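Sequence only, no structure available. Ideas?
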Amino acid sequence: MMQQIFAVNGPTGLHLRSDLHLARKVWHMFMGATMASIYFSGMSVHVAVLCLSVALCLSVSLEFARLRVPSFNEKIVRLWGPVMRHCEINRVSGIPFYILATLLAIGIFPKPIAVLSILYLAFGDPVASVVGILYGKYGPRFSNGKSLIGTLAGVATCTLVGFFFLKTLSLPPTVYLSLVLIGGIAGGVAELAPFEMDDNLSIPIVSGFVLWFAFIVFGV
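Reply:
I predicted one. Tokens follow.
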């Protein structure tokens, strides 16, 4: 009842999932790029996992507290309103999932793959969303509501990210181009995975495993 009252009387004007919501997209990119850059710059796996575990615990605790205390929830929503969606007023926001995805990627995959999968999430997902919202009506949609045009934009973005990042590994040209294309496709279509999973989790996990297999096949 308290949550229902808050939903009616609390802050208004938050964005819907179907809105362009550029502030959220920029925040999404900034978070992912920052975490990937810090980890790639020399941070060890153990330190990164520890820091992200602490951040995840704090984030989950904050979510639990705000969803239990309407007055605190209202303050948080007013503070984070520019990057929150209306549907997140009375449910867990995307931040814990984002941190968890980064934590899993770093904990599971070798560093180059972990960094690249995080960058796919940071840039591929927001670009796919923007293009899908603006132009998705001009093409077919998948059963989960994602548009073909948006997915292709995600593939193109992830391919471009891989094109620049994989240059740092000094790979043979054929291997380099193959991994750029494989990673780009995996990062872009991961949101279409046929199981219920938040995009923040599916993109780095699915693309990470695909890239890891590709790295093994090519002997990287």
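The chain has nine helices and no strands.
Hope that gets you unstuck.
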